[in-house]
Each structure stands twice: as C-alpha cells, then as structure tokens.
Amino acid sequence: MSAVEAIEVAIRELPPNDLAEFRRWFAEFDAAAWDKQIEADAAAGKLDRLAAEAVAEYGAGQAREL
Questions:
Q1: In 3D, which of 21, 27, 25, 22 has the Cα closest to residue 8?
Q2: Cα distance between residue 57 and residue 54, in whole Å
Q3: CA 37 to chain centre
Q4: Which of 13, 46, 49, 53 gives 41 a disulfide partner, CB atoms 3.0 to 4.6 angstroms apart?
Q5: How would DSSP label each residue in 1-66?
Q6: Domain containing 30: what range?
Q7: CB count, 10 Å around CB of 40?
Q8: How far apart, in Å, are the Cα atoms of 6 and each of 11, 12, 35?
Q9: What is the pLDDT of residues 4-58, one digit of tens each?
Q10: Is 36 within the bounds of a domain?
C-alpha cells in the first residue's frame, strides 16, 4: 500500500469531529502551499506576461468592474 493509499484509508476512518479538524488543517496547508508557489512563480517572472496583458487590456478600456 502506498503512502497516499494509507492516508486515504486513515481519513475514511476518522470520526466526524476529527475529519472536520483535518479539513480545516488541510485547507490552511493547501492555501499556504499555493501562496508559496504563486510567490515563486512571480519572483521567477512566470506571471509577467499575464500581468502585462492585463495592464494593456485595462489601458485599452477592455476591463470591467467585478
């Protein structure tokens, strides 16, 4: 059994309160990992093209309020 499979089994066996706590923890963990990846991508210039496109579209009046 792989580590992922073992984790899946353990999660399925959690009582509801523990499952809720795990969900909360995992949501925070996942958000932090996402933030770290976005920061790394931004620092590496991987988002520069998208930012330039957005600024150009805004400057051309192609943006709208959300």
A1: 22
A2: 5
A3: 8
A4: 46
A5: --HHHHHHHHHHTS-HHHHHHHHHHHHHHHHHHHHHHHHHHHHTTTTHHHHHHHHHHHHTT-----
A6: 3-59
A7: 10
A8: 9, 10, 27
A9: 999 999 999 999 999 999 999 999 999 999 999 999 999 999 999 999 999 999 9
A10: yes
- In a domain, residue 11? The reply is yes
pLDDT value, residue 18: 98
Does residue 65 lie in a domain region? no
As a whole number of angstroms, the distance between CA 14 and CA 19 comes to 6
Contact in structure between 11 and 19 (CB atoms under 8 Å):
yes
CA–CA distance, 15 with 6 (Å, rounded to integer) = 16
Which residues have a Cβ under 8 Å from the Cβ of 11 and sit 6 or more positions away? 19, 22
